[in-house]
Design a protein that fits this description.
By secondary structure, this protein is an alpha+beta fold. A six-stranded mixed sheet has the order 2-1-10-11-7-6, with no helix packed on it. A four-stranded mixed sheet has the order 5-8-9-12. A two-stranded antiparallel sheet has the order 3-4. It contains 17 helices and 14 strands. The structure holds flavin-adenine dinucleotide. Flavin-adenine dinucleotide binds next to strand 5 and helix 15.
Length: about 475
Protein backbone atom coordinates (compact mmCIF):
# COMPACT_ATOMS: atom_id res chain seq x y z
CA UNK A 1 0.00 0.00 0.00
CA UNK A 2 2.85 2.46 0.71
CA UNK A 3 2.81 5.47 3.00
CA UNK A 4 -0.65 6.67 3.95
CA UNK A 5 -1.64 10.29 4.39
CA UNK A 6 -3.76 11.78 7.17
CA UNK A 7 -6.97 11.40 5.15
CA UNK A 8 -6.36 7.68 4.58
CA UNK A 9 -5.49 7.15 8.23
CA UNK A 10 -8.64 8.93 9.38
CA UNK A 11 -10.79 7.06 6.85
CA UNK A 12 -9.39 3.74 8.12
CA UNK A 13 -10.94 4.44 11.53
CA UNK A 14 -14.46 4.16 10.10
CA UNK A 15 -14.33 0.40 10.51
CA UNK A 16 -17.21 -0.46 12.84
CA UNK A 17 -15.06 -0.49 15.98
CA UNK A 18 -16.93 -0.43 19.29
CA UNK A 19 -15.87 2.74 21.12
CA UNK A 20 -17.55 4.45 24.09
CA UNK A 21 -16.80 7.86 25.56
CA UNK A 22 -18.71 9.83 28.24
CA UNK A 23 -21.18 6.93 28.49
CA UNK A 24 -22.08 6.94 24.80
CA UNK A 25 -21.39 4.48 21.98
CA UNK A 26 -19.79 6.41 19.12
CA UNK A 27 -20.72 5.11 15.67
CA UNK A 28 -18.25 7.19 13.70
CA UNK A 29 -15.33 8.22 15.89
CA UNK A 30 -14.01 10.62 13.26
CA UNK A 31 -17.07 12.80 13.85
CA UNK A 32 -16.92 12.90 17.64
CA UNK A 33 -15.31 16.23 18.69
CA UNK A 34 -13.31 14.89 21.64
CA UNK A 35 -12.07 11.79 19.85
CA UNK A 36 -11.48 13.77 16.67
CA UNK A 37 -9.14 16.04 18.59
CA UNK A 38 -6.97 13.03 19.44
CA UNK A 39 -7.30 11.71 15.88
CA UNK A 40 -6.11 15.04 14.45
CA UNK A 41 -3.16 14.92 16.82
CA UNK A 42 -2.25 11.38 15.73
CA UNK A 43 -2.78 12.30 12.07
CA UNK A 44 0.20 14.67 12.27
CA UNK A 45 2.30 11.50 12.04
CA UNK A 46 0.84 10.87 8.58
CA UNK A 47 1.66 14.31 7.21
CA UNK A 48 5.14 15.12 8.51
CA UNK A 49 6.91 13.09 5.82
CA UNK A 50 5.71 15.70 3.31
CA UNK A 51 8.12 18.21 4.83
CA UNK A 52 11.28 17.84 2.71
CA UNK A 53 13.57 18.61 5.64
CA UNK A 54 12.08 15.71 7.66
CA UNK A 55 11.73 13.11 4.91
CA UNK A 56 15.08 11.37 5.50
CA UNK A 57 14.49 11.11 9.21
CA UNK A 58 10.91 9.86 8.89
CA UNK A 59 11.08 7.48 5.96
CA UNK A 60 13.32 4.52 5.15
CA UNK A 61 13.11 1.35 3.04
CA UNK A 62 11.91 -2.05 4.13
CA UNK A 63 14.80 -4.51 4.46
CA UNK A 64 12.51 -7.24 3.06
CA UNK A 65 10.47 -5.58 0.26
CA UNK A 66 12.60 -2.51 -0.46
CA UNK A 67 9.44 -0.37 -0.34
CA UNK A 68 9.27 2.95 1.47
CA UNK A 69 8.19 2.52 5.08
CA UNK A 70 8.08 4.80 8.10
CA UNK A 71 11.31 4.76 10.05
CA UNK A 72 9.38 3.98 13.22
CA UNK A 73 9.35 0.40 11.94
CA UNK A 74 13.13 0.24 11.58
CA UNK A 75 14.53 -2.40 13.91
CA UNK A 76 17.66 -0.81 15.44
CA UNK A 77 20.90 -2.67 14.71
CA UNK A 78 23.44 -0.15 16.05
CA UNK A 79 23.79 2.70 18.55
CA UNK A 80 23.39 5.10 15.60
CA UNK A 81 20.01 3.51 14.74
CA UNK A 82 18.91 4.03 18.35
CA UNK A 83 20.05 7.66 18.34
CA UNK A 84 18.07 8.15 15.13
CA UNK A 85 14.99 6.53 16.70
CA UNK A 86 15.38 8.96 19.58
CA UNK A 87 15.66 11.91 17.19
CA UNK A 88 12.59 10.63 15.34
CA UNK A 89 10.51 10.49 18.52
CA UNK A 90 11.75 13.89 19.68
CA UNK A 91 11.09 15.52 16.31
CA UNK A 92 7.59 14.12 15.75
CA UNK A 93 6.72 15.06 19.34
CA UNK A 94 7.92 18.62 18.74
CA UNK A 95 5.46 18.85 15.85
CA UNK A 96 2.66 17.74 18.18
CA UNK A 97 3.19 20.77 20.44
CA UNK A 98 5.43 18.67 22.69
CA UNK A 99 2.83 15.90 23.08
CA UNK A 100 3.91 12.53 21.66
CA UNK A 101 1.78 11.35 18.73
CA UNK A 102 1.56 7.70 19.86
CA UNK A 103 0.65 6.24 16.51
CA UNK A 104 3.55 3.79 16.24
CA UNK A 105 5.84 4.40 19.20
CA UNK A 106 4.36 1.91 21.70
CA UNK A 107 3.48 -0.57 18.95
CA UNK A 108 7.07 -0.71 17.72
CA UNK A 109 8.35 -0.87 21.31
CA UNK A 110 6.24 -4.02 21.64
CA UNK A 111 7.33 -5.36 18.25
CA UNK A 112 11.01 -4.78 19.00
CA UNK A 113 10.63 -6.62 22.30
CA UNK A 114 8.83 -9.45 20.50
CA UNK A 115 11.62 -9.69 17.91
CA UNK A 116 14.06 -10.20 20.76
CA UNK A 117 12.00 -12.59 22.86
CA UNK A 118 10.48 -14.80 20.14
CA UNK A 119 14.02 -15.48 18.90
CA UNK A 120 14.90 -16.82 22.36
CA UNK A 121 11.62 -18.75 22.69
CA UNK A 122 12.06 -20.40 19.29
CA UNK A 123 15.67 -21.26 20.09
CA UNK A 124 14.67 -22.98 23.33
CA UNK A 125 11.38 -24.59 22.30
CA UNK A 126 11.55 -24.98 18.54
CA UNK A 127 8.46 -22.80 18.00
CA UNK A 128 8.05 -20.51 14.97
CA UNK A 129 6.92 -17.31 16.70
CA UNK A 130 9.70 -15.16 15.27
CA UNK A 131 8.54 -15.98 11.73
CA UNK A 132 5.03 -14.82 12.67
CA UNK A 133 6.38 -11.60 14.18
CA UNK A 134 8.44 -10.95 11.04
CA UNK A 135 5.37 -11.46 8.81
CA UNK A 136 3.25 -9.25 11.04
CA UNK A 137 5.94 -6.54 11.06
CA UNK A 138 6.00 -6.62 7.27
CA UNK A 139 2.20 -6.34 7.18
CA UNK A 140 2.00 -3.27 9.45
CA UNK A 141 4.99 -1.64 7.71
CA UNK A 142 3.63 -2.14 4.22
CA UNK A 143 0.16 -0.90 5.18
CA UNK A 144 1.50 1.95 7.32
CA UNK A 145 -0.77 0.99 10.21
CA UNK A 146 -0.97 2.64 13.60
CA UNK A 147 -0.67 0.44 16.67
CA UNK A 148 -1.32 0.50 20.40
CA UNK A 149 0.45 -1.61 22.99
CA UNK A 150 -2.05 -3.36 25.27
CA UNK A 151 0.12 -4.55 28.15
CA UNK A 152 -1.28 -3.48 31.53
CA UNK A 153 -4.01 -5.78 32.85
CA UNK A 154 -6.63 -4.63 35.35
CA UNK A 155 -4.86 -6.90 37.90
CA UNK A 156 -7.54 -7.08 40.64
CA UNK A 157 -5.75 -7.90 43.89
CA UNK A 158 -2.19 -6.78 43.18
CA UNK A 159 -0.74 -9.16 45.76
CA UNK A 160 -2.05 -12.23 43.91
CA UNK A 161 -0.85 -13.91 40.73
CA UNK A 162 -3.27 -14.18 37.78
CA UNK A 163 -4.28 -17.76 38.57
CA UNK A 164 -4.87 -16.91 42.26
CA UNK A 165 -7.39 -14.10 41.62
CA UNK A 166 -10.99 -14.47 42.73
CA UNK A 167 -12.14 -13.24 39.33
CA UNK A 168 -10.37 -15.35 36.69
CA UNK A 169 -10.19 -12.59 34.07
CA UNK A 170 -8.36 -9.85 35.97
CA UNK A 171 -5.54 -10.77 33.60
CA UNK A 172 -6.21 -11.51 29.93
CA UNK A 173 -6.77 -15.26 29.66
CA UNK A 174 -7.02 -17.91 26.95
CA UNK A 175 -10.49 -19.46 27.35
CA UNK A 176 -10.40 -21.77 24.36
CA UNK A 177 -7.74 -23.30 22.12
CA UNK A 178 -8.72 -24.30 18.59
CA UNK A 179 -6.73 -25.66 15.67
CA UNK A 180 -6.87 -22.31 13.91
CA UNK A 181 -6.29 -20.04 16.92
CA UNK A 182 -7.33 -19.10 20.45
CA UNK A 183 -10.18 -17.28 22.17
CA UNK A 184 -9.28 -14.73 24.88
CA UNK A 185 -11.18 -12.91 27.61
CA UNK A 186 -10.13 -10.07 29.91
CA UNK A 187 -9.38 -6.39 29.93
CA UNK A 188 -6.28 -4.26 29.44
CA UNK A 189 -6.27 -0.74 30.88
CA UNK A 190 -4.67 2.63 30.15
CA UNK A 191 -4.15 1.53 26.53
CA UNK A 192 -2.86 4.68 24.87
CA UNK A 193 -4.51 5.57 21.55
CA UNK A 194 -6.57 2.35 21.50
CA UNK A 195 -9.72 4.21 20.33
CA UNK A 196 -7.83 5.66 17.35
CA UNK A 197 -5.24 3.13 16.16
CA UNK A 198 -5.63 0.28 13.67
CA UNK A 199 -4.03 -2.55 15.61
CA UNK A 200 -3.53 -3.73 19.17
CA UNK A 201 -0.36 -5.56 20.13
CA UNK A 202 -0.94 -7.51 23.30
CA UNK A 203 1.81 -8.69 25.61
CA UNK A 204 1.80 -9.91 29.23
CA UNK A 205 2.29 -7.33 31.94
CA UNK A 206 4.34 -9.35 34.44
CA UNK A 207 6.32 -12.47 35.24
CA UNK A 208 4.18 -15.61 35.55
CA UNK A 209 4.44 -19.11 36.95
CA UNK A 210 3.45 -22.42 35.38
CA UNK A 211 0.07 -22.17 37.11
CA UNK A 212 -0.57 -18.96 35.13
CA UNK A 213 -0.06 -20.72 31.80
CA UNK A 214 -3.32 -19.54 30.25
CA UNK A 215 -2.38 -15.93 30.96
CA UNK A 216 0.96 -16.11 29.16
CA UNK A 217 -0.31 -14.74 25.91
CA UNK A 218 0.88 -12.32 23.26
CA UNK A 219 -0.72 -11.51 19.92
CA UNK A 220 -1.77 -8.74 17.54
CA UNK A 221 -5.29 -7.98 16.40
CA UNK A 222 -7.21 -5.24 14.55
CA UNK A 223 -9.06 -2.84 16.88
CA UNK A 224 -12.37 -3.54 15.12
CA UNK A 225 -12.25 -7.29 15.82
CA UNK A 226 -15.53 -8.73 17.06
CA UNK A 227 -15.63 -8.84 20.86
CA UNK A 228 -13.34 -5.87 21.45
CA UNK A 229 -14.91 -2.92 23.28
CA UNK A 230 -13.01 0.29 23.97
CA UNK A 231 -14.04 2.67 26.76
CA UNK A 232 -12.13 5.90 26.27
CA UNK A 233 -11.09 8.12 29.14
CA UNK A 234 -13.03 11.42 29.18
CA UNK A 235 -11.85 14.33 27.09
CA UNK A 236 -13.24 17.71 26.06
CA UNK A 237 -13.33 18.70 22.43
CA UNK A 238 -14.50 22.28 22.83
CA UNK A 239 -11.43 24.04 24.23
CA UNK A 240 -10.25 27.20 22.48
CA UNK A 241 -6.65 27.66 21.35
CA UNK A 242 -5.95 30.95 23.16
CA UNK A 243 -6.83 29.67 26.62
CA UNK A 244 -5.62 26.09 26.01
CA UNK A 245 -2.80 26.40 23.46
CA UNK A 246 -1.69 22.78 23.84
CA UNK A 247 -4.64 20.76 25.10
CA UNK A 248 -7.18 22.30 22.70
CA UNK A 249 -5.53 20.41 19.86
CA UNK A 250 -3.03 17.92 21.20
CA UNK A 251 -4.03 15.03 23.42
CA UNK A 252 -3.56 11.31 23.56
CA UNK A 253 -6.53 9.11 24.48
CA UNK A 254 -6.08 6.24 26.88
CA UNK A 255 -8.77 3.59 27.27
CA UNK A 256 -10.03 0.36 28.77
CA UNK A 257 -9.63 -2.32 26.12
CA UNK A 258 -12.04 -5.17 26.75
CA UNK A 259 -11.69 -8.58 25.12
CA UNK A 260 -14.94 -10.49 25.41
CA UNK A 261 -14.25 -13.90 23.86
CA UNK A 262 -12.12 -12.55 21.05
CA UNK A 263 -10.80 -14.99 18.45
CA UNK A 264 -7.13 -14.62 17.56
CA UNK A 265 -5.94 -16.51 14.46
CA UNK A 266 -2.89 -18.72 14.87
CA UNK A 267 -0.59 -16.65 12.66
CA UNK A 268 -1.16 -13.63 14.94
CA UNK A 269 -0.13 -15.44 18.15
CA UNK A 270 3.40 -14.65 19.37
CA UNK A 271 3.35 -16.42 22.74
CA UNK A 272 0.96 -18.96 24.20
CA UNK A 273 1.85 -20.57 27.49
CA UNK A 274 5.63 -19.94 27.58
CA UNK A 275 5.44 -18.79 31.19
CA UNK A 276 9.21 -18.74 31.71
CA UNK A 277 9.47 -15.91 29.15
CA UNK A 278 6.66 -13.67 30.43
CA UNK A 279 8.76 -11.67 32.88
CA UNK A 280 11.55 -11.24 30.34
CA UNK A 281 9.11 -10.08 27.64
CA UNK A 282 7.41 -7.61 30.01
CA UNK A 283 10.80 -6.22 31.11
CA UNK A 284 12.12 -6.05 27.58
CA UNK A 285 9.02 -4.10 26.46
CA UNK A 286 9.39 -1.82 29.47
CA UNK A 287 12.99 -0.99 28.50
CA UNK A 288 12.04 -0.15 24.91
CA UNK A 289 9.10 1.87 26.16
CA UNK A 290 11.17 3.78 28.73
CA UNK A 291 13.66 4.57 25.97
CA UNK A 292 10.69 6.05 24.09
CA UNK A 293 9.62 7.82 27.30
CA UNK A 294 12.89 9.63 27.84
CA UNK A 295 12.92 10.57 24.15
CA UNK A 296 9.45 12.14 24.01
CA UNK A 297 9.73 13.97 27.30
CA UNK A 298 12.56 16.30 26.33
CA UNK A 299 10.49 18.52 23.95
CA UNK A 300 7.97 18.99 26.76
CA UNK A 301 10.75 19.95 29.16
CA UNK A 302 12.14 22.39 26.58
CA UNK A 303 8.73 24.07 26.48
CA UNK A 304 8.89 24.47 30.28
CA UNK A 305 12.26 26.23 29.91
CA UNK A 306 11.10 28.44 27.04
CA UNK A 307 7.93 29.46 28.89
CA UNK A 308 9.87 30.23 32.10
CA UNK A 309 12.45 32.33 30.28
CA UNK A 310 9.84 34.22 28.24
CA UNK A 311 7.56 35.07 31.15
CA UNK A 312 10.52 36.15 33.30
CA UNK A 313 11.56 38.41 30.43
CA UNK A 314 8.05 39.86 29.94
CA UNK A 315 7.79 40.40 33.69
CA UNK A 316 11.10 42.29 33.71
CA UNK A 317 12.77 39.84 36.10
CA UNK A 318 15.06 37.96 33.75
CA UNK A 319 18.17 38.90 35.69
CA UNK A 320 16.77 38.09 39.13
CA UNK A 321 18.96 35.41 40.63
CA UNK A 322 16.39 33.14 42.30
CA UNK A 323 14.29 33.01 39.11
CA UNK A 324 17.35 32.37 36.97
CA UNK A 325 18.16 29.52 39.39
CA UNK A 326 14.74 27.98 38.70
CA UNK A 327 15.36 28.18 34.96
CA UNK A 328 18.80 26.66 35.49
CA UNK A 329 17.14 23.83 37.44
CA UNK A 330 14.92 23.22 34.41
CA UNK A 331 17.95 23.13 32.12
CA UNK A 332 19.63 20.59 34.42
CA UNK A 333 16.39 18.59 34.36
CA UNK A 334 16.13 18.37 30.57
CA UNK A 335 19.84 17.88 29.95
CA UNK A 336 20.00 15.02 32.46
CA UNK A 337 17.14 13.27 30.66
CA UNK A 338 18.82 13.83 27.29
CA UNK A 339 22.11 12.46 28.64
CA UNK A 340 20.47 9.27 29.87
CA UNK A 341 18.74 8.89 26.51
CA UNK A 342 22.01 9.21 24.61
CA UNK A 343 23.86 6.95 27.03
CA UNK A 344 21.13 4.32 26.73
CA UNK A 345 21.66 4.35 22.96
CA UNK A 346 25.45 4.46 23.00
CA UNK A 347 25.67 1.85 25.75
CA UNK A 348 23.17 -0.48 24.06
CA UNK A 349 23.42 -4.25 24.30
CA UNK A 350 23.76 -6.15 21.01
CA UNK A 351 21.55 -9.24 21.07
CA UNK A 352 22.43 -12.60 19.51
CA UNK A 353 19.99 -11.87 16.67
CA UNK A 354 21.61 -8.52 15.93
CA UNK A 355 19.23 -6.07 17.64
CA UNK A 356 20.60 -2.98 19.39
CA UNK A 357 18.79 -3.08 22.74
CA UNK A 358 18.79 0.24 24.65
CA UNK A 359 20.75 -0.08 27.87
CA UNK A 360 18.11 -1.03 30.49
CA UNK A 361 19.95 0.60 33.42
CA UNK A 362 20.14 4.01 31.72
CA UNK A 363 16.59 3.78 30.34
CA UNK A 364 15.27 3.09 33.82
CA UNK A 365 17.31 5.79 35.55
CA UNK A 366 16.36 8.31 32.84
CA UNK A 367 12.66 7.54 33.14
CA UNK A 368 12.84 7.50 36.94
CA UNK A 369 14.67 10.84 37.00
CA UNK A 370 12.11 12.43 34.70
CA UNK A 371 9.11 11.19 36.64
CA UNK A 372 10.55 11.75 40.10
CA UNK A 373 11.49 15.36 39.35
CA UNK A 374 8.53 16.31 37.19
CA UNK A 375 6.41 17.91 39.91
CA UNK A 376 9.39 19.98 41.10
CA UNK A 377 9.94 21.20 37.54
CA UNK A 378 6.32 22.27 37.21
CA UNK A 379 6.65 24.05 40.56
CA UNK A 380 9.77 25.87 39.27
CA UNK A 381 7.84 27.17 36.27
CA UNK A 382 4.91 28.21 38.47
CA UNK A 383 7.27 30.05 40.80
CA UNK A 384 8.77 32.01 37.90
CA UNK A 385 5.40 32.84 36.32
CA UNK A 386 3.30 34.26 39.19
CA UNK A 387 -0.38 33.92 40.05
CA UNK A 388 -1.82 35.38 36.87
CA UNK A 389 -1.35 31.89 35.47
CA UNK A 390 -4.62 30.90 37.10
CA UNK A 391 -6.34 34.21 37.81
CA UNK A 392 -5.90 35.92 34.45
CA UNK A 393 -8.80 36.76 32.12
CA UNK A 394 -9.74 34.60 29.15
CA UNK A 395 -9.80 35.07 25.40
CA UNK A 396 -13.49 35.97 25.70
CA UNK A 397 -12.58 38.84 28.05
CA UNK A 398 -9.89 39.94 25.65
CA UNK A 399 -12.35 39.95 22.75
CA UNK A 400 -15.00 41.90 24.65
CA UNK A 401 -14.39 45.65 24.03
CA UNK A 402 -15.70 46.44 27.51
CA UNK A 403 -12.86 44.48 29.16
CA UNK A 404 -10.16 44.44 26.50
CA UNK A 405 -9.20 48.04 27.25
CA UNK A 406 -8.57 47.22 30.92
CA UNK A 407 -6.58 44.13 30.02
CA UNK A 408 -4.38 46.10 27.63
CA UNK A 409 -4.01 48.99 30.07
CA UNK A 410 -3.16 46.97 33.18
CA UNK A 411 -1.66 43.63 32.17
CA UNK A 412 1.39 44.76 30.24
CA UNK A 413 4.86 43.82 31.54
CA UNK A 414 8.24 45.43 31.02
CA UNK A 415 8.48 48.07 28.28
CA UNK A 416 7.61 46.40 24.98
CA UNK A 417 5.91 43.37 26.58
CA UNK A 418 2.26 43.66 25.58
CA UNK A 419 -0.60 42.45 27.72
CA UNK A 420 -1.76 40.01 25.07
CA UNK A 421 1.66 38.38 24.69
CA UNK A 422 2.04 38.10 28.43
CA UNK A 423 -1.41 36.57 28.62
CA UNK A 424 -0.56 34.08 25.87
CA UNK A 425 2.46 32.80 27.81
CA UNK A 426 0.43 32.71 31.04
CA UNK A 427 -2.20 30.60 29.29
CA UNK A 428 0.44 28.20 28.02
CA UNK A 429 1.82 27.84 31.54
CA UNK A 430 -1.68 27.35 32.88
CA UNK A 431 -2.38 24.66 30.30
CA UNK A 432 0.82 22.82 31.19
CA UNK A 433 0.66 23.21 34.96
CA UNK A 434 -2.83 24.00 36.23
CA UNK A 435 -5.59 22.55 34.04
CA UNK A 436 -7.26 19.14 34.02
CA UNK A 437 -4.85 18.25 31.22
CA UNK A 438 -1.91 19.30 33.42
CA UNK A 439 -3.19 17.20 36.31
CA UNK A 440 -3.46 14.19 34.04
CA UNK A 441 0.15 14.70 33.04
CA UNK A 442 1.21 14.59 36.70
CA UNK A 443 -0.34 11.14 37.00
CA UNK A 444 0.75 10.09 33.52
CA UNK A 445 4.36 10.99 34.26
CA UNK A 446 4.41 9.00 37.49
CA UNK A 447 2.74 5.88 36.07
CA UNK A 448 3.17 5.98 32.29
CA UNK A 449 5.94 3.55 31.22
CA UNK A 450 5.51 1.86 34.59
CA UNK A 451 5.38 3.09 38.17
CA UNK A 452 8.43 4.60 39.90
CA UNK A 453 8.89 1.43 41.90
CA UNK A 454 9.04 -0.62 38.70
CA UNK A 455 12.06 1.45 37.66
CA UNK A 456 13.68 1.24 41.11
CA UNK A 457 13.40 -2.56 41.00
CA UNK A 458 14.99 -2.69 37.55
CA UNK A 459 17.75 -0.26 38.52
CA UNK A 460 18.69 -2.30 41.58
CA UNK A 461 18.57 -5.54 39.58
CA UNK A 462 20.71 -4.21 36.74
CA UNK A 463 23.40 -2.44 38.73
CA UNK A 464 26.47 -4.45 39.70
CA UNK A 465 26.00 -4.04 43.45
CA UNK A 466 28.08 -7.16 44.10
CA UNK A 467 31.07 -5.47 42.56
CA UNK A 468 30.65 -2.58 45.00
CA UNK A 469 30.50 -5.01 47.94
CA UNK A 470 33.71 -6.66 46.76
CA UNK A 471 35.34 -3.25 46.52
CA UNK A 472 34.36 -2.45 50.11
CA UNK A 473 35.61 -5.85 51.27
CA UNK A 474 38.92 -5.19 49.55
CA UNK A 475 39.18 -1.79 51.21
CA UNK A 476 38.52 -3.33 54.63
CA UNK A 477 40.59 -6.45 53.97
CA UNK A 478 37.59 -8.67 54.70
CA UNK A 479 37.83 -12.29 53.53
CA UNK A 480 34.72 -14.40 54.10
C1 LIG B 1 -1.12 8.13 30.87
C2 LIG B 1 -0.82 6.68 30.93
C3 LIG B 1 -0.60 5.99 29.74
C4 LIG B 1 -0.36 4.62 29.74
N1 LIG B 1 -0.23 3.96 28.56
C5 LIG B 1 -0.21 2.60 28.57
C6 LIG B 1 -0.27 1.87 27.35
O1 LIG B 1 -0.31 2.43 26.26
N2 LIG B 1 -0.31 0.51 27.41
C7 LIG B 1 -0.28 -0.15 28.59
O2 LIG B 1 -0.34 -1.36 28.57
N3 LIG B 1 -0.20 0.51 29.76
C8 LIG B 1 -0.16 1.86 29.77
N4 LIG B 1 -0.10 2.56 30.96
C9 LIG B 1 -0.07 1.78 32.19
C10 LIG B 1 1.12 1.99 33.12
O3 LIG B 1 2.20 1.22 32.72
C11 LIG B 1 0.60 1.63 34.51
O4 LIG B 1 -0.24 2.70 34.92
C12 LIG B 1 1.66 1.38 35.53
O5 LIG B 1 2.37 0.22 35.21
C13 LIG B 1 1.06 1.23 36.92
O6 LIG B 1 0.06 0.26 36.91
P1 LIG B 1 -1.40 0.59 37.48
O7 LIG B 1 -1.82 1.88 36.93
O8 LIG B 1 -2.26 -0.57 37.26
O9 LIG B 1 -1.20 0.83 39.00
P2 LIG B 1 -0.95 -0.25 40.14
O10 LIG B 1 -0.34 -1.48 39.57
O11 LIG B 1 -2.18 -0.42 40.93
O12 LIG B 1 0.16 0.45 40.99
C14 LIG B 1 -0.11 1.43 42.00
C15 LIG B 1 1.05 1.41 42.99
O13 LIG B 1 1.08 0.14 43.67
C16 LIG B 1 2.36 -0.48 43.50
N5 LIG B 1 2.13 -1.92 43.33
C17 LIG B 1 1.27 -2.52 42.47
N6 LIG B 1 1.33 -3.87 42.60
C18 LIG B 1 2.23 -4.12 43.56
C19 LIG B 1 2.73 -5.31 44.15
N7 LIG B 1 2.31 -6.51 43.78
N8 LIG B 1 3.68 -5.19 45.09
C20 LIG B 1 4.14 -3.98 45.48
N9 LIG B 1 3.69 -2.81 44.96
C21 LIG B 1 2.76 -2.88 44.01
C22 LIG B 1 2.98 0.17 42.26
O14 LIG B 1 4.40 0.15 42.28
C23 LIG B 1 2.41 1.58 42.33
O15 LIG B 1 3.23 2.38 43.09
C24 LIG B 1 -0.31 3.94 30.97
C25 LIG B 1 -0.52 4.64 32.16
C26 LIG B 1 -0.77 5.98 32.15
C27 LIG B 1 -1.02 6.68 33.46
Amino acid sequence: MGLRDAKQYIESLRDGREVYIHGERVDDITKHPSIRKAINHGAIDYELDKKPELRDLLVTHSPTTGNEIRRYFELPHSPEDLLRRQKLIETTTQHGSAIILFMKEIGTDALNALNMMTYLMDKKNGTNYSERVAKYREYVEENDLSMSGAVTDVKGDRSLRPSEQEMPYYYLKVVERRNDGIVVRGCKVHTTSAPITNELIVIPTRAMTEADNDYCISFAIPVNTKGITIISRPERGDLNWFDYPVSSGHVTLEAMTIFEDVFVPKERIFMDGEWEFCGALANCFATWHRFTGISYKTPFADVLIGAAQLIADYNGVLGVSHLRDRITDLVIYVETIKTFGKTAALGCIMTENGIAYPNPLYCNIGKYFFANNYHASIKALQEVAGGLVITGPTEADYKNPATREFIERYLGGRKGASAVNRLKVMKLIRDLTATEFAGEWFVGTVHGEGSLQAQRLSIYRDYDVKNCVNYVKDLLKIED
